[in-house]
Amino acid sequence: MIELGVMKEGFITQILEKMELFFYRKCKILIMVTRSFKDNVINRGIDGEKVHVITNGVNQELFYPIEKNSSLIEKYNLKDKFIISYVGAHGISQNLSTILKVAKALNNEKDIQFLFIGEGAEKNKLKEISQKEDITNVKFIDSQPKEMIPEFYNTSDVCLIPLKKIELFKTFIPSKMFEIMACGIPIVASLEGEAADILNDSKSALVVEPDNPEKIKQAILKLKADKALYNQFKKNGPIFVEENYSRKKLAEKYLEIMNNISEVNYNDPINREHGISR
């Protein structure tokens, strides 16, 4: 929040940080969703032995490859289009004005269609830019119920995962990337850090630097032109998720950690206070 300029550092943030560290120290174990978060708490004095990493994952009973949704294609006039979708919050973190620049640069590619699906503080501004600059290959679609998200992913040819170029975002792993991979849809991601490493390892995404419309455009065109690469990405995504980020795999990691927790210290004052005894 501070790096984004939403909140200023001061007395309140100092108190919140002290409370945060207090609870971290009292925890028997800590489970972080990224390696970067783990490194952060260790650097702030938390014992690394009790800090574990289990990332977010995906429910493969909901997100998996299916045919394009013919109803969506008809409703949004997407027949014979190469569909590029962004699904999620339209906020300052995503810097979607960069994606509008990409769409504008591809305005003359008549078979390319961008979909912006979701809501957020920047949405009206983005719509105004689109109208003002006559960007005709973008459709803005309202936020969708959870059960429709896999339909939109699977109706897309490419999905976008943009993040603003901020040091903090190198520690973020957008959970949507696991959903998209599980659906077998190639990704163009403009981000850095741990998420970029995972996507590169998956061999189901092209990762470019954030806030660079030219690099994003070239990645989109590469996937559109190179059918062999495109089809390999479609195949790789679901396999990678199944092997590394399925809910079943993550649950097994949680159980392993829980089973390895050492015996409760019954002499701890906190335990005595709550009536925990042998």
From TrEMBL:
Residues 11-61 form the Glycosyltransferase subfamily 4-like N-terminal domain. Keywords: Glycosyltransferase, Transferase. Residues 74-237 form the Glycosyl transferase family domain. Its EC number is 2.4.1.250. The keyword Disulfide bond does not apply. One of its GO terms (molecular function) is D-inositol-3-phosphate glycosyltransferase activity. InterPro entries: Glyco_trans_1 (IPR001296), Glyco_trans_4-like_N (IPR028098), Glycosyltransferase_grp1 (IPR050194). PANTHER family: SULFOQUINOVOSYL TRANSFERASE SQD2. This is D-inositol-3-phosphate glycosyltransferase.
